[in-house]
Amino acid sequence: MHLSRLFGRYAAGLLVLGLLTGFLPNLAQNRRVPPTASTALKVTGPAKPKLILTIVVDQFRNDYLSRFGDLYSENGFQRLVKNGAYFTNAHYLHACTYTACGHAVILSGSVPAMTGIIGNQWFERESGLPVTSVTDARFMGLPSGRGGAPTRLLVTTLGDQMRMNSNYRSKVIGISLKDRSAMLPVGKSANAAYWFDTAGGNMQTSAYYMDSLPPWVTAFNARKYADSYFGKTWERLLPEAVYNRSDRDDAPYEGKFAGDSNKFPHVITGGGTQPGPKYYDDFTKTPWANDLQVDFAEAAIENEQLGQDDDTDLLSVSFSAFDILGHAFGPFSQEMEDMALRTDLAVARLLDVVDKKVGLANTLVVFTADHGAAPVPEYAQEKKMGGRRIKELDVMDAVTKALNAAYGQGTWISDVQNGSVYLNLETIQAKKLDRSTVERLAGETALKVPGVATYFTRTQMLNGPLPPTEIARRVAAAFHPHRSGDVYLVPEPYSFFEEPQVRLSTTHGTPYSYDTHVPVILMGRGLKPGQYQTASSPADIAPTLATLLNVEAPSGTVGRVLNEALETEPLPAKALAPKAKGRR
Fold first, then answer.
1. Could you report the per-residue pLDDT of 205-236, keeping only the tens digit for each?
2. Active centre residues (catalytic)
3. 3-state class of 55 per DSSP?
């Protein structure tokens, strides 16, 4: 490797470390963590669990557990809350609360500033094109569809550490409807990751993991699971009166299914006469997609013999339908209430499957989410809470006009991704301008666009100072020097940036509590059930599990061990006694 390139990577690593240890000093202290358990303690429970089961419900706000808690079944979310260590005050430490970012944190214990996963996609200066978090053109999809790989993830995960610790005998598998949600939690050395191909209606993987699909996956696809739901009607699970804790069913700001209305009951056809890409896309918004994932997970457990030997295995299941529907209908819709109730049943069935195949007594279960969600802006406005849609094109237009006026005509913006403005460096260089000055003018101009609350520049992120606020800390944790843009924009609460030609009822991605606050529940032997109000984060999951497994924590870990939930006992006094001098 060329020396300058090597030094650049080393310097970038030091910069990220400086951001996290300097501006984010002692994350545990910032989160008011109680004194840690003595180092002279050991975790009680089984010598080693047979399986780690990670359950992620995409876009599951923490308040879904309380809003609908009395409606859930005993064996789903209630089983987790009653029998697990439930951290009620868990927030993501970063501002870029997107699916890829959260999924990269959960089993790495890190933050986007170190994982390098700063969005579902971002602008890549080297190629001059947007790339996704799992873009890798070297690996095709199997049996078809888009391939890709987790090669853009810059840190290890718990699964990677488990594989190394067992000399790669531990099996690690990820399952989701989304490629990024299947790949990123399990890391780069996973045995496999599987997701749903909306072009063909099959579960697929990437050539990164294998040369051909295992026979059991081919057999599963032959069942044409998604096709069997074509034209079926989605009715409410419970009587209509129960849904009075949600918004009216026909709110005009809700989305709808293709060829259908925005109110119950829903007939799912994708607007066509037979299954096809539009139908498969709508299928991923239904509770039936959850059922597909549970059936596929059961097939994986059985055929891959997960949890059947002395080496702990890991299965990550991310339920994506919750998020896909949430974008279309919003968190206060009756559709989302019904999805929550039906996801509860899917989680209950998954736990029952694991209990039957492996035994929950032999399993450590994790339940969390990758982010929350904002109310639909029109809903927020109706309730007098503010909120608006900020068009990225309006930001680009305002910044371009200001820079043209100040420095002459030019192509000033390369791209805007996730509210982050990537300035055109060639234009800045050609006009012999100071990059930090252009950044400040772009930020001050964007601040005049209605709905923009504040901004942070690249130079400010690199050199400081940053204000001592939680928003600034979360933005710092989202900044990667090689991948982030030049001006990071933060919208006002209940507002968000809209991409050109993309219309969602609502979304996520901000540093505000409705996007950062998610449940974190750990269940299994070695853990004390109960509710814990101490400040915590999904970044704490990986180091806690690593402690329970007695393996090295992932390489980028910044989270803490959740000591208050660990069952511990003092080591024998003899083990603590100092050795007599002179003895060998």
1. 999 999 999 999 999 999 999 999 999 999 99
2. 99
3. strand
Largest interatomic CA distance in the chain: 86
Range of the domain at 58: 52-211+287-376+513-534+537-542
Residues 110 and 165 placed together within one structural domain of the fold? yes
Helix or strand or coil: residue 236? coil
CA 70 from chain centre, in angstroms, equals 27
Take residue 320 and report the two structure tokens written for it: 């994506």
What DSSP designation does 197 have?
Answer: E
Q: How do beta strands 85-87 and 530-532 pair?
A: parallel
Are 417 and 485 within 8 A, CB to CB? yes
Structure tokens at 380: 């927020």
Interatomic CA distance for residues 117 and 153, integer angstroms: 6
Closest C-alpha to 476, from 46, 394, 484, 431 = 484
Q: Looking at the domain assignment, is residue 550 inside a domain? A: no
Whether the predicted model's global pTM rises above the 0.90 cut: yes
Examine the domain organization and report whether 336 and 437 are in the same domain.
Answer: no
Give how many domains the chain has, as a whole number: 2
Helical (H) or strand (E) element with 4: helix 3-18
DSSP string, 68-119: SGGGS-TTTHHHHHHHSEEETTBB-S-S---HHHHHHHHTT---HHHH---S
Q: Is residue 57 part of a domain?
A: yes
Q: How far is CA 60 from CA 65, 322, 370, 562, in A?
A: 9, 7, 8, 22
DSSP state letter for 188: S
Lookup: tokens for 135:
């873009």
CB atoms within 10 A of CB 242: 17
Degrees to nearest 5, angle at CA 414 with 411 and 415: 135
Q: What is the pLDDT of residues 337-372, one digit of tens each?
A: 999 999 999 999 999 999 999 999 999 999 999 999
**293 and 153 share one domain:** yes
User: Which tokens sit at 12?
Assistant: 């970038």
